[in-house]
Amino acid sequence: MTKLSEISIEQAQSFTKMVGYEDRMTGTTMSGSGGNKHVSIYSIKEMLKFLFVDSFDRLSQRGHGSTISYLNLDELIRWIAEVYEDKELADAISEGMSNADNYAAKIEIAGNLLKERMQQCEEILK
Amino acid sequence: MKGFMGKILRIDLTNRSISTIDTKQYEQWGGGHGMGSAIFWDLCKDKGIKAFDPGNVVTVMTSPLSGTLTPSASSRTEIQGIGPQSWPYEWFTRSNVGGRFSAMLKFAGWDGVVVEGKASEPVWIDIRNHKVEIKDANGLWGLDAYEAQQEIWSEVNDGENYGTWNQVGTGRDGGRSTQRPAVLTIGQAGENLARNAVIMHDAGNAAGQGGLGGVWGSKNLKAISVIGTGSVEVADPNALLQARIWLHEGYHYNVDEPIHESPVDNMPVYGTITRSPGYATLYIPYTEPSRAKGCTGCYNNCRRKTSSGYSNEASCVESLFYMTEKMEDTHKATDLLQRYGINVYDIMQHGYLRDLYMRGIIGPGKQIHSDLPFEKYGELEFAEALTKAIAFREDIGADLAEGMPRAIEKWGLLDDMNKGLVTFPNWGYFEHYDPRLEIEWSYGSILGDRDINEHDLNWLVHWMPLVCDAVGQEPIVSAQRVAEQISSKLVIYNDPMMLDYSEEGIYSDAKVKMVSWHRHYTRYFKQSMLFCDWAWPNFLSVNNPEMKGFTPEGEPKFLNAVMGTNMTFEEGMEIGRKIWNLDRAIWIMQGRHRDQEVFNDYVYDVPTSAPYHLPIFKDGQWSFDVNLGRTLDRDKFEDWKSKYYTHEGWDPSSGWPKRSTLEGIGLGYVADELAKNGKLGRE
């Protein structure tokens, strides 16, 4: 996986900020019993919480008890590049996802890269 | 006819009078919903009243199957009355609760309870076999739903522990029981007339939709408790036992040797399909020790009891109410709903409130003043404040207790609803499944009174292919097999095109048949005979080596064993049609006209933006499509309504049933009443 470059304190502060209503991302939580629910996402922290698909085994065993969080992945890349102005991360996510053949694999890649960047931020902002 | 106990308890709270209704008068309706609607029709003289009017009649009904060995049908309770939740009209409505109540009521000798009038002070109803008392509930008023049940359990058994043999009543024939009484109760939300208040039972069972908890509050009725020591006489116990074994061996998830343990190597799939125990409790992780828990007589046991005690018995959407960083806090938030007695569906879109906060519309000193801790959104603290505010009508909770759509209307934000920023497609009910696409759900809802919440087709046609696609698998069952196998069971139509969700298919004649089949099936088998939504019908079972399903063979097999009849599946569907027409007549007496049966604007104007898998038939081939960018076409839907009304024997200009239709199903007296009020459809 791509190793992300070091970032500055200013970049870290920007990356951990909450965005306003107009700049939020919207996703859809899908569950077998509850149907679909729109979710607004206002920060990378919330995005990390949202980006989650149960494993196939877990889905297989639990059915109703499982959830898919759906995002338009092109929108996610745009959000990272334009709202958070982190072009390197956006490109890394885009490139990583191009090698995955299903949605769960794509968001796992995106989630891992977001997590890596978030850890960098937490380190530098300690 | 066997399966009935012979009498229905009738209570007038205004006069504090207790009487009985002979069940025989209503046996033709099956039980549950059909019986409740028929009793409501007879006893609620002015059907145009509001939900909180003392004249509102609430029925709490069992079925002939309650308290018997019938799997996943032995203890659901159907509750009906005029509901305050629907918006902008307060329709006659229904809700259904599992647990133990229905079986226990039968064991006490009753087929149902009818509540009329309004008590001058808070009361609860204490049923111990045939002995019934209306008791002072001042000591219970103000308690949450868990506390109230604990108080009643203690009082009924004179403070003795349960789990040992206890005498029920004082007579020598009273019998003994190790069981706690089964209690239906409201929490503080119901006491404070919240339109989104539920009626709770045990830890995680609720009659949630419709706001009937608020109706109990308006009647000063805190709870109904029942303990019974009798049993239900069935016509052919051996046939019933053999039927249960037939179903268990042929279709049940075998915990020791599951046929589809591995989804990769075998035909699969998923908890709802495999019915593995405990599958229905959504957000309890595998790491938390728990055991499966079922309603009385169930063979699936879909719920769970946990070591922590949080979210016990919770299932379905209430477990998804509020996601936090800590799993324990998520479970605690669910418990808050259960304790206060709030309908999760109505406030499930709390994220919209947060959006209003982020837009600068809600908050201290804002257009909508609120001191709720929105900065703590995502933490338990916010959920605690929000649920308390609704239950006690504090802060914006005073508006939200009117139901979220009414709050939005009061706040002058209906445009948000029209744009789909908050999704209430019909009658002020939360969007459950996509109303633009999964249309037997949405059409069934708009033709009725609420979100139908019937998962009969949903798992196979939508969720299964969606999940498979998300994880890069081929659909477990092909679109063609889904269409062919399900339709083979949709007696009497048996048309595969009923399963076509394409842009043309959703307005087709076949979809007229699909919606009609669904309305009639659920009204009789599911809501009147009280077969559980999460087990019946069964179109396909992966626990069967050939993936057969037990519908339509199973339903009459159990009914006939219990009742001693020779009823066919088709005859059951006809009773469903009769009940659907009676409900229609009640809504018409409340003012229903076809012009009201339209969706919120966003359903027609805002295209779908997330993949939503459903089978479509195109160029001679079946496939699962993701259906992006779809809307419902206003004109085509109006044309479809006309076809549907015609199919049901209703006047397409008004949506009102014709006399010939009503007389043909034994509802001439209903036609007379509609005619008297100028509301009979033209021939």
Topology:
The complex is a heterodimer of chains A (126) and B (683).
Chain A: H1 9-15, E1 25-31, E2 35-41, H2 44-50, H3 56-62, E3 67-70, H4 73-83, H5 87-98, H6 103-124
Antiparallel strand pairs in A: 1-2, 1-3
Helix pairs in contact in A: 1-6, 2-6, 4-5, 5-6
Chain B: E1 7-12, E2 17-22, H1 32-43, E3 58-61, E4 77-82, E5 92-97, H2 101-107, E6 112-116, E7 123-128, E8 131-136, H3 145-156, E9 166-167, E10 176-177, E11 182-185, H4 188-191, E12 199-201, E13 205-207, H5 212-218, E14 221-227, H6 237-251, H7 271-274, E15 290-293, E16 303-306, H8 327-340, H9 344-347, H10 350-358, E17 362-363, E18 368-369, H11 380-391, H12 397-400, H13 404-410, H14 414-418, H15 439-446, H16 458-470, H17 479-488, H18 509-526, H19 554-563, H20 569-589, H21 601-605, E19 614-618, E20 621-625, H22 634-648, E21 650-651, E22 656-657, H23 659-664, H24 668-676
Parallel strand pairs in B: 1-6, 7-14, 17-18
Antiparallel strand pairs in B: 1-2, 3-4, 3-6, 4-5, 7-8, 9-10, 11-12, 11-14, 12-13, 15-16, 19-20, 21-22
Helix pairs in contact in B: 1-20, 6-19, 8-11, 15-18, 18-20, 18-22
Descriptive account of the structure:
The complex is a heterodimer of chains A (126) and B (683). Chain A is α+β, with helices and mostly antiparallel strands. Chain A is 52% helix and 14% strand. Chain A has one domain. Chain A has a 3-stranded antiparallel sheet. In chain A, helix 1 crosses helix 6 and helix 4 runs antiparallel to helix 5. The longest helix of chain A has 22 residues. Chain B is α+β, with helices and mostly antiparallel strands and 683 residues long. Chain B is 34% helix and 13% strand. Chain B contains 24 helices and 22 strands. In chain B, the strands form 7 sheets. A 6-stranded mixed sheet of chain B has the order 2-1-6-3-4-5, with helices on both faces. A 6-stranded mixed sheet of chain B has the order 8-7-14-11-12-13. In chain B, strands 9-10 form a two-stranded antiparallel ribbon. In chain B, strand 7 and strand 8 form a beta hairpin. Chain B is globular. At the A-B interface, strand 1, strand 2, helix 3, strand 3 and helix 6 of A face helix 7, helix 10 and helix 16 of B.
